[in-house]
Amino acid sequence: MRFESTEIDGLFGLRLDWHGDARGAFARLFCRETFAAQGLAGDFVQASLSVSTTAGTLRGMHFQRAPHAEAKLVRCVRGAIHDVIADLRPDSPTKGRWQAFELRQDGDLALYIPKGCAHGFQTLVDDCEVLYQMDTAYAPGFADGLRHDDPALGITWPRPVTVISDKDRSWPPFRPPGAVG
């Protein structure tokens, strides 16, 4: 795998190195030693699979507050998604910025998302599955989010939202660090 820098500090695209033969193809999704050499969290303690049946479904923007903030490794294993990461870290040089990526089952891109960033995605086709690996176990009392359409972030999505949970629709507005009121 090859690590690619992005516009957000600490967020990396991981390009898979596919090896093919008559049987098909093989690529390594994760290697603890390779992650450690990059200075990235590599002790994943939890894995989850998200399944969305309808194109236009939006999930996010989610994160966990400290001390249970989590780094994530995300890959689309079925279908195609528009994946968005927003930097919420108060001391980050890229705080308040977001970046989007297209992840596809037939693509070679996965994302390493650092602690302190919100994550969400919209399905581009029907029947999508997204695999997550996290370095911190889910802590319900520290789960948080922000609205996908918050004007303070200005995230653009590629299509109208067809399905969204009530919880994701009702997150409070984004408040940049140091905001008053």
TrEMBL record:
GO terms for biological process: dTDP-rhamnose biosynthetic process; polysaccharide biosynthetic process. GO terms for molecular function: dTDP-4-dehydrorhamnose 3,5-epimerase activity. Keywords: Isomerase. Its EC number is 5.1.3.13. It catalyses: dTDP-4-dehydro-6-deoxy-alpha-D-glucose = dTDP-4-dehydro-beta-L-rhamnose. Transmembrane segments: none annotated. One of its GO terms (cellular component) is cytosol. It is an enzyme of class 5 (isomerase). InterPro entries: RmlC-like (IPR000888), RmlC-like_jellyroll (IPR014710), RmlC_Cupin_sf (IPR011051). Catalyzes the epimerization of the C3' and C5'positions of dTDP-6-deoxy-D-xylo-4-hexulose, forming dTDP-6-deoxy-L-lyxo-4-hexulose. This is dTDP-4-dehydrorhamnose 3,5-epimerase. It comes from Humitalea rosea.
